[in-house]
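Record type: ASSEMBLY
Status: queued
Input:
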Amino acid sequence: MGLVCLGVNHKTAPVEVRERFAFSKSALEAALQEVAGGEGIDETVVLSTCNRVEVYAVCESSDAGLAHLEGYLRDHFGVEKGEVDLFYRLRDGETARHLFRVASGLDSMVLGETEIFGQVKKAYAAAHGAGVTSRLLNKLFQHSFKVGKAVRSSTHIARGATSVGSVAVDLAEKIFGDLGKCQVMVLGAGDMSRRTAQSLMSRGAKSIIVSNRSYDKAEELAVEMGGEAIRFDDWAMAIPKVDIVISSTGAPHTVIHPDDVQAAMRRRRGRPLFVIDIAVPRDVEAGVNELENVYLYDIDALEAIAAEGRREREAQIKVCDAMIEEHMGEMDVPGLGSGGEGRGREEMGGEYRAAHE
Amino acid sequence: MAGEVMDRLFLILSTVCFLGGFLYVVAGIRSGAYRPSRVNLTIMGLGFVFQCVYLWQLGQLRGRCPITNGFDLLIFVSWSMVLFYFLLGPPFRVSLLGVFTAPMVFLFQVGALLISGGKLEATPLAERGKLDPWLETHAALSLMGYGAFALACVAGVMYLVQDRQLKRQQLSNLFYSLPPITALGRTVFRLLVIGFVLLTAGIGSAFLMKDRPDVVHLLPTVAVWVVYGVLVGWQLVRGMGARKLALVSAWAFVLPVLTLLLLH
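Status: finished
Output:
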């Protein structure tokens, strides 16, 4: 009996390839039944996200099982000759180790991200619901949830923010706590400010005001985000009632000066103001950060924190892998071998192997 | 010696708990693995239970509310601080208040142990009948007010630490463990209001005592009341800003400490 995984992910294949192999939600159950119905396949789980498509299976023989899965993908997704190398083929212990790394966020594009944990859970629930899992995959996936939780709670792999948007959100939460009472103002309707505002809104910010030199663009973004548009000449009047200002106007000179903010702060009765300047050249004069209860972060400051977050997470990989090895030792699944000595590692896609070794 | 240790057993146990709680969180923060957990809350809770038991024993010994000398007073203020920590910390998600509170309580209690001298003396039975309940109310409420001011000082320091990190854009492990700065600002103000109300009631009860209050004793307390009253009033009427409030709260606690030293 063997445990195998056949898959592609963001490290082995570009999005144009990955998207072709993606299993749609509506077709997943039929696909699960079809894979599980193959000769020599006893159990299966399909994990299909925007960054990976992986088919896990318990089969009578690893080689025959992998051949069957490849055949299935060839028949259903039209895998071309050169694309065969983009797939990694993992066996036994290496499959378990890989699943543990995936569930822990170690194999994700954004190291340590937590969304994958839910996606693995959903994939397992779908397969379990379809009745195509049994003793081995049940045990393996349950164990992967335990490992994913343990790795995240005992290490810093999910600590800190790794992108400008998430740093801005983290800082906003460290200033205001619950963002549910926070009003956001966006100056300049560019892509970067839109994304940052979206991050804040997705974490519960109360409302948004958009101001842009072109009022039409401001209105467009305001409608998209369920907010209110104001004329560019009026942004200074709005500062007393907002808590977070995101500025990215594209102006060649500074737009927000200490005097503007100081006047507004008098009317805020000491409520803090978080100013995010993601424009280059900068929109906000550095002196604004000297004002009491005003916290100014420009793009370099946000990037530096994000880079530090990424560095800290990368430094945790070894610790996480050591934890996973401990769990591999604890695994008691018949037929899996010792874990780690599987032949699959040699057969993994070239880029994937390079990224892991 | 053994008798003296037994006399103060629960005080020593609670002091050890506060030191342990402090060291536990500091170790967690230094390693970056700190997360608010039941462990720290349990250690602080245990320290509080020991404090309560000790104060009860002391009350039995004194035959009154145990606020008769500098030793009692330090323990009572420490107890008030932990009480307010439990009332305001976990419910308002400012759990790390414990790590800043614990060392202050530890120092107060070590101070109490150092000045406690030999065997604790019981109040003679003859004196117990002469007690004025308003005098005890005055002392207890005033010291509880001081406890709230001490905790406002602690929360103020936490605010200033968080503000400094945000301004300098240097975010340490402590930054991620501290509560949001606005929550800290609100906590400072809440504690100032609680302290002021308690101190007002404490001073008010002094005027209900059988004997006229001792002016020399009462004046420094009234001075503290005026300073904190101005602080609370200013914030209520004009809104001085959370940072200024935190800064003034941190420094203002020097005044209650000085009055305690002066009076005892």
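Annotation: The CA atoms of residues 254 and 282 of chain A lie 6 Å apart.
Annotation: The first strand of chain A starts at residue 2 and ends at 9.
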